[in-house]
Amino acid sequence: MGFLNGKRILITGISSKLSIAYGIAEAMHRQQAELAFTYQNNKLKNRVEEFAKNFDSKITLQCDVSQENNIKLLFLSLSEYWSKFDGLIHSIAFAPKNQLNGDYVNKVTYEGFKIAHKISSYSFVCMVKECRMMLNPNSSLITLSYLGSKRAIPNYNVMGPAKASLEANVRYIANIIGPEGIRVNAISAGPIRTLASSGIKNFRKMLAYCERVAPLRRTVTIEEIGNLAAFLCSNLSSGITGQIIYVDGGFNIATMNEL
Ligand code: NAD
C-alpha cells in the first residue's frame, strides 16, 4: 500500500508537464494519495483537467491568488468535494519579467516588489488562513523555495526577498499551527527548467554552473522534488516542521569544490 493512502492533498501550480507541481502529483499519485488541483486561469483549465485525469482526479478548481476572494472561493468550492483534507502544495511564484534581469537596485520598482511578495509569499499564508478549519490533524503544508532567499544570485533579484519572506512565513505558520498537529515546510529546489524559471535571464547558464559546482555534479529533477514532497505529506515525516529542506544536489553547501 502507498504511504499516502487515505490522504487528500490539494496541489496548486501545475501549468505544464515540466512544472515542479507535476512531479509532486506524480510522486503522490504513486503513493496512492487522492488529489485535487487548482489552475490559475481559464487558459490553463483544459490542460489541468487533462492532467488531473492522469492522476485519477476529477477535482480541478480555478484560483488566481492575486485575487484574495478567489482563495476564499477555492476552499468553499473544495468543501463541496472534501469537508476535510490532509495536505496543501503551494507551488506558485511570480514577478514581472522586467524585474528578473540585470542590476537589482536599478531595476526594482515598488510595483514589482509588491507583486512578487503578494503572489509568491503572502498567497501561502492567505491559503493557510482560508483552509485552516478544513485541515485534519497530521496535515502537512508545503511550499517551494529557492536558495536566492539566502544568497545573492544574479538576475533572481526581487524574487530573493520574496523567497526570504516565504521562508519566514513557513516558520511563523509552523509555530502557530503546530499545536493543531499541522506541519509546514518548504522544499528549496535547485534550478529546473520550467515556464517560471525560463523568465530568469541566463537561466541555462545557472543550470550549467550548478552542474559544475554541486557535490552531485548534476541538477535535480521534478521527480526528486516530488519524492520529498510525498514523504513530507506522509506520516513518515511526523516530527518535521518549520524546515527549509534542500533538494539541490548539495549546491547550497558548496563553495570551492576543487582548486
Ligand atoms: P511553473 O511555471 O511550472 O509553476 C509556477 C506556477 O505558478 C504556474 O502554475 C502558475 O500558473 C502559478 N501562478 C503564477 N501566478 C499565479 C497566480 N496569480 N495565481 C495562481 N497561480 C499562479 O514553474 P515551477 O518552476 O514549477 O514553479 C513552482 C514553484 O517552484 C515556484 O514557487 C518557484 O519559485 C519554485 N522553484 C522553482 C525552481 C526552478 O528552478 N524551476 C527552483 C526553486 C523553486
Automatic annotation (TrEMBL):
Kindly tell me the pathway this chain contributes to: Lipid metabolism; fatty acid biosynthesis; Cofactor biosynthesis; biotin biosynthesis
A GO biological process this protein is involved in? biotin biosynthetic process
Q: Which CDD domains match?
A: ENR_SDR
Question: Which reaction(s) does its UniProt entry say it catalyses?
Answer: a 2,3-saturated acyl-[ACP] + NAD(+) = a (2E)-enoyl-[ACP] + NADH + H(+)
Q: Could you confirm whether the keyword S-adenosyl-L-methionine appears in this record?
A: no
What are the UniProt keywords, alphabetically? Biotin biosynthesis, Fatty acid biosynthesis, Fatty acid metabolism, Lipid biosynthesis, Lipid metabolism, NAD, Oxidoreductase
Q: EC?
A: 1.3.1.9
What are the site positions for Involved in acyl-ACP binding? K201, R204, K205
Superkingdom of the source?
Bacteria
> Can you tell me which residues bind substrate?
A95
Q: What is this protein called?
A: Enoyl-[acyl-carrier-protein] reductase [NADH]
Q: What is the lineage of its organism?
A: Bacteria, Pseudomonadati, Pseudomonadota, Gammaproteobacteria, Enterobacterales
